[in-house]
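Bit of a strange request maybe. I'm writing a small parser for structure token strings and I need a real example to test against, not something I typed by hand. Could someone generate the tokens for this chain?
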Amino acid sequence: MSSLQKCETCGQYFEPLYVDLVPLLRAAISDVAMQIVNTRPGPLPFPPADPPAAAQPITFGHLSAGLPPAAAAVAPARIRSTTPIIIDMQPNTPVLPAPSLDDSSSDGTPGREVSVPVKGCKRAHYSAMELEELVRITIEENPFGAKHGEKGATWKRVAQRLKALGYFRTSSAETIKHKLMSLIAYQEDPESHAGSKVACEMAGTCGIKIAALLDCISEMQNTAATQTEEQKECTQVKAEQDHIGGEAIHNASMRTLRRKRDDLTDSDSDVENKPPVGRQSKKACRSLSTTAQAGSSMGDLSDLKDILVEDGKKRDERQQEMVETLKESTRVYERTSEKYLAAILQLSKQQ
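Reply from user aminoacidic:
Good idea to test on real output. This should exercise your parser:
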């Protein structure tokens, strides 16, 4: 009877029921705190009591307490709890699924962008021939001396000419510009951050030739930094004139070289067909008849005539080519002179 307690109302004995309600109270308090109350903030529905110890029992009164006398008489004399009370303490917060990598949601609206880490790509390596062509074409186009608003178009022309030669096929004009600026930085200071990016490519004998061309680019940069827009235009016209005239001279030189090579080939074939110098023809030692000598003379004259006619045709063709070359050079000179004169007149009017 030591574990039984006496009811103060009916005087009967009962066994107390021990239930640990601390976890249940904590869960209820957290659920109430998470609710949004639109009214004026006030105290909680019930004050949080100090939780007792985990093993501290909670004593309840008899079930018949507070009932009318008739209902209290019907209540059992003793209530014994034989079934343990199990409280589910699993968290009531739903577990969200892992985010999908698909950009679109189920209703067709675009989903939130998910950032995916990108691994670093390997730096592109260019050969010495590619770098040399890059520097050479840059010197010809001179993007540093272009007027304001035309530098981007000049760099695009540099990229197009390089790609036409089979170089920098997957590189943009901006990438090509950065590569050239790295070469210039290496020329000025090989230990700099930008110059160290091309240190391996500039090593060896190929870097010496590229360095000589980079000196010319540095001079172009310094000149362009001190020029006005009008002076840049005059310089660009003069460079275009030199480029067109140089192409005309180059084409004429190539045609002359091909003609000389053809003449040398024909001369070599004639020398091979000649008899040896120390060996005389047996016909010269024989005594020929008058008819035979006359026939031989007529044949030699006929061959000589054909040779002279063929030589005259070749001379006429060469003279015609030279005349066409001179005409083309004259037309180029007139066009460039007109542009140069117009630029000078415009500059004089502005002054």
